[in-house]
Design goal:
It is a single chain. The protein is of the alpha+beta class. The chain contains 22 helices and 23 strands. The strands form 4 sheets. It has a 9-stranded mixed β-sheet, with helices on one face. It has a 6-stranded mixed β-sheet with strand order 16-15-18-17-20-19. A 5-stranded mixed β-sheet has the order 10-11-14-12-13, with helices on both faces.
Length: 643
């Protein structure tokens, strides 16, 4: 077949330009990314060979090879792993499949500093493109294990790439970088120098479990002596550059934080150090080791359906599975790492793992260990805990709904925005310690943003009396508050549901005054209930309003409108519950309406005012009018009459 030319996907082309013009100063990491891809390909081949006896593939000497040619200014990273088919090359390299890529690129282009740009690049998980930081042209030659024909991919990163079939390609993948011309900058980073390559591999890829070999070439800098061959390599043969020691199997005292961080970057394809490292070793009837990492930033697709969760599973140092979902619950899906079990079969499948009691035992232990580590972070390093909660609090709170066994532990490491302070979130324990005398409940309000909650009419009496309210803005908050129900015997109560009694605190009215007020408004309330019967189940005087004329609240046992919408979005047929309209008897508009009601025999004209009061209350909580056009007409007519 002839060579075909294709255009990069728009997002891929934009990313290439960012790489070519390098927003990342440490260009050495391109080699780490290419070696990491090669290691993944070797893992996949060994796994396929274990599960398919008919696979026609050579697995006798799986390895990664580096070949630098100073005269041609090329560097080749080669593996004899699983390789790619013609279609896979076009699909995996010509496009970026992640959802939200366009938005992420926009953020990347707007990043104000290099650190921000680096973090965003890492979220793509497309380390192959980093080759264009140092190369003018990249050639990829690959043949999928078991196939007879290979594929050559080539591009200068300028918007197009070529694909062609190749007859004699070896099994696996080789990536050849035609390095940029030597200049003042590139002389400092000579990627054709064996000494530079050794240093980069040792720093970033020493733990890779496959041998990384380099064929020595003649020539050396003046006065420099080549290092002795390592790991059994001969002076005249390939030199193995990495130790191939599994970090999770080595004593903690023998491993530096930098080594742990590089393993994390290899596993996660993130370019930033993790926020926290968690080690666990279990001995006895069932032995396993775990090395887990909490990222510093949430991936952009954490809440999308296609997000790949789970940690890597090894059995006696043999890679078995890349995203083993059975090892951690969904609400810890952001955790990356390795679990190495001693007593599982090498042929274990995902289906078997879901039923295996040993795997369930590991999941319980890992979950408790991670939550314990977060609790320690909370106690010892408030800044790092704040960073953790900012990135992962919304997903961790899912555990309050789904994991009853660890609900108390999740709640203990959870914190929430509150009216007590603008900056620092609070725990439920801290809230209880600050509760006013006579206050029996923990109050909260859910909404789309802090600003919308603080401006809600439901908050008026709480603000006036200095009663603290939790401000909950994540979608999961609508659900977990019902699942938890109480904390230390204190009920969790929405300020937008049921009738509110603020601990018997004085509102300036005697009981006789309140009783008379109820009598004065009884007729109006009953009449409005009839007028608005299609929309409300009741109309009553409010104890939570001090400024606004009206608000709508849910009955204590009803779902909130947000929760109703959430269930409908999930395909559940939830009937729409009628709300309760509350009126502020101290507001001039409500007082005027009551006076007009009492004085007029013909009250037909007051119906529009009742409708406006209800619709204004719906708008105030972020809802939409049932009939926007009618609402606009009513408001316009009232404004016209007032001129």
């Amino acid at each position: 077949m002839p060579t075909e030319t294709f255009e990069f996907q728009v997002e891929a082309r934009q990313l290439l330009q960012l790489m070519i013009h390098s927003v990342y100063s440490n260009k050495d990491v391109f080699l780490r990314e290419l070696i990491s891809n090669a290691s993944d390909a070797l893992d996949k081949l060994r796994l396929e060979a274990l599960r398919d006896d008919t696979l026609d593939a050579d697995v006798s000497d799986l390895r990664i090879e580096l070949d630098a040619d100073p005269e041609a200014r090329t560097l080749t990273v080669r593996d004899n792993g699983v390789g790619m088919s013609y279609d896979e090359v076009g699909r995996l390299i010509g496009t970026i499949a992640h959802s939200g890529t366009a938005q992420l690129l926009k953020e990347l282009q707007e990043a104000k500093d290099e650190a921000g740009a680096e973090g965003l690049i890492g979220q793509f998980g497309v380390g192959f493109y980093s080759a264009f930081m140092v190369a003018d042209e990249v050639t990829l030659l690959t043949r999928r294990a078991g196939e007879t024909h290979g594929t050559r991919w080539q591009s200068r990163g300028e918007g197009t790439y070529t694909l062609e079939h190749v007859e004699d390609a070896p099994q696996g993948t080789s990536v050849t970088l035609h390095l940029k011309p030597a200049d003042a900058e590139n002389q400092l980073h000579d990627y054709t120098s064996p000494w530079t390559i050794r240093e980069i591999v040792k720093r970033y890829s020493d733990f890779i479990t496959w041998p990384i070999r380099m064929e020595p070439r003649t020539g050396k800098p003046e006065g420099a002596e080549p290092p002795a061959a390592e790991n059994g390599g001969e002076e005249s043969g390939p030199e193995t550059l990495n130790s191939m020691k599994a970090l999770w199997a080595r004593p903690r005292s023998e491993v530096s934080d930098d080594e742990y961080h590089e393993l994390y970057k290899h596993i996660s394809h993130d370019w930033q150090d993790p926020l926290e490292t968690v080690r666990l070793q279990a001995e006895g009837t069932f032995e396993y080791q775990a090395l887990l990492f909490v990222p510093a930033h949430a991936p952009h697709d954490l809440f999308t359906q296609g997000y790949q969760r789970g940690v890597q599973l090894y059995v006696k140092r043999v890679f078995i599975m890349d995203h083993c979902e059975a090892l951690l619950p969904p609400y810890l899906r952001f955790v990356k790492g390795v679990v190495d079990a001693a007593d599982l079969s090498l042929n274990v499948s995902r289906e078997i793992l879901q039923q295996d009691r040993h795997i369930r035992m590991i999941q319980r232990r890992l979950t408790k260990k991670i939550l314990s580590s977060v609790k320690d972070l909370m106690a010892k390093d408030t800044d790092r805990y704040a960073a953790f909660w900012r990135e992962f609090g919304a997903v961790l709170k899912e555990g309050l709904v789904t994991d009853s066994e660890n609900r108390e532990a999740v709640l203990a490491v959870s914190s929430f925005a509150t009216t007590h302070g603008e900056e620092e979130p609070t725990t439920l324990q801290q809230y209880v310690e600050r509760m006013q005398d006579g206050q029996e409940d923990i109050y909260f309000l859910t909404g789309e943003s802090r600003q919308s909650i603080e401006n809600s009419p439901h908050m008026e009496a709480f603000r006036a009396k200095g009663v603290e309210v939790l401000l909950l803005t994540d979608p999961v908050d609508e659900v977990w508050v019902d699942a938890v129900g109480e904390f230390q015997g204190k009920r969790l109560r929405s300020v937008a549901k049921g009738e509110i009694d603020l601990g018997g605190q004085d509102d300036g009215k005697s009981e006789s005054e309140k009783e008379k007020q109820n009598e004065d408004y009884a007729g109006l309330l009953g009449w409005m209930g009839e007028q608005l019967g299609e929309d409300v189940k009741d109309v009553r005087l409010s104890t939570r309003l001090t400024v606004s004329p009206s608000c709508v609240v849910s009955d204590a046992s009803d779902l909130t409108p947000a929760l109703e919408n959430m269930y409908r979005a999930m395909g559940q047929d939830v009937p729409r519950a009628k709300r309760i309209l509350e009126l502020n008897p101290d507001h001039l508009l409500v007082q005027g309406l009551n006076q007009a009601y009492r004085e007029r025999e013909d009250r037909s004209g007051l119906g529009e005012t009742a409708e406006l009061l209800y619709t204004l209350a719906v708008l105030a909580e972020g809802g939409q009018p049932k009939d926007p056009a009618r609402f606009v007409k009513l408001v316009a007519d009232r404004l016209e009459r007032g001129l």
